[in-house]
């Protein structure tokens, strides 16, 4: 029998551990479960060893579940989303015929999802989902009216209003996030996760667990002698770390 490998991507540790535990209990035929705490790690896991199916949280640090889903589907895998969204958003999943689980995940509902996955795996069914994922991305994206338009940040003993077009990158540092522009740095108390919820995903990418960059500021992606990736950014002399998955994303543009 072909080894059955699943991927679970969920940034909340208790929910991730609970889902993995339920999957092992309810699907004893599983060979292995790879658990990831963010989208970047999940995308790297897909590239390393394509899973037969993936359970993906929609909102994760690094890359969202929709981005990871595209990679899973490209490698021939199936996808189940986990979500805490309200009824309106759940309707988007149902309209797209994409399986989903509401959080916290209940064993009865998980049994249904497992049954559907096993049937599709046995029949080797791989429904075309690219258009469905595009539609979900549009329907679940925050409306422009709710997006961040500028950043209020502390610079010494002053407070400055920084336009998004001035920002080169954000980088998490301890309890703060550094806002780097071409001329100066500032600190804010918002987390990267909170920032990403309000930023236009077409203009800002999370390229590392600790870094979000403005796409238009990307100059070059380099790999050093140790195999680590670094970004050079326009308007800055420093460089920032990047995930290997960024190389794949840039090549797809």
From TrEMBL:
Modified residues (4-aspartylphosphate): 57
Domain called HTH LytTR-type: residue spans: 151-253
Pfam assignment, any one: LytTR
SMART domains: LytTR, REC
Keywords carried by this UniProt record: DNA-binding, Phosphoprotein, Two-component regulatory system
Coiled coil found in the keyword field: no
Gene Ontology MF terms in the entry: DNA binding
Phosphoprotein in keyword set: yes
Domain Response regulatory: 5-118
InterPro entries: CheY-like_superfamily, LytTR_DNA-bd_dom, Sig_transdc_resp-reg_receiver, WalR-like
PANTHER family: REGULATOR OF RPOS, RESPONSE REGULATOR RECEIVER
Name recorded for this polypeptide: LytTR family DNA-binding domain-containing protein
Organism per entry: Tahibacter harae
Species classification: Bacteria, Pseudomonadati, Pseudomonadota, Gammaproteobacteria, Lysobacterales
């Amino acid at each position: 029998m072909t080894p059955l490998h699943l991927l679970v991507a969920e940034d909340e540790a208790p929910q991730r551990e609970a889902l993995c535990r339920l999957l092992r209990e309810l699907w004893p035929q599983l060979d292995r479960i790879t658990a990831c705490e963010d989208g970047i790690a999940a995308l790297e896991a897909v590239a390393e060893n394509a899973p037969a199916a993936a359970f993906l949280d929609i909102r994760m640090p690094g890359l969202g579940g929709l981005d990871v889903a595209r990679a899973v589907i490209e490698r021939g895998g199936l996808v189940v989303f986990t979500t805490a969204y309200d009824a309106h958003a759940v309707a988007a999943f149902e309209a797209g015929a994409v399986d989903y689980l509401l959080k916290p995940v209940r064993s009865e509902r998980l049994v249904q999802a497992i049954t559907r996955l096993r049937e599709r795996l046995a029949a080797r069914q791989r429904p075309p989902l690219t258009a469905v994922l595009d539609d979900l991305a549009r329907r679940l994206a925050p409306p422009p009216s709710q997006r961040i338009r500028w950043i209020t940040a502390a610079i010494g003993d002053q407070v400055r209003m920084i336009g998004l077009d001035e920002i080169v990158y954000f980088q998490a540092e301890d309890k703060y996030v550094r806002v780097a522009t071409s001329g100066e740095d500032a600190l804010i108390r918002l987390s990267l996760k909170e920032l990403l919820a309000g930023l236009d995903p077409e203009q800002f990418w999370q390229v590392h667990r600790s870094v979000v960059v403005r796409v238009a500021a990307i100059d070059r992606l380099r790999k050093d002698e140790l195999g680590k990736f670094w970004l050079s950014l326009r308007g800055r002399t420093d460089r920032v770390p990047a995930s290997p998955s960024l190389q794949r994303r840039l090549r797809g543009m």
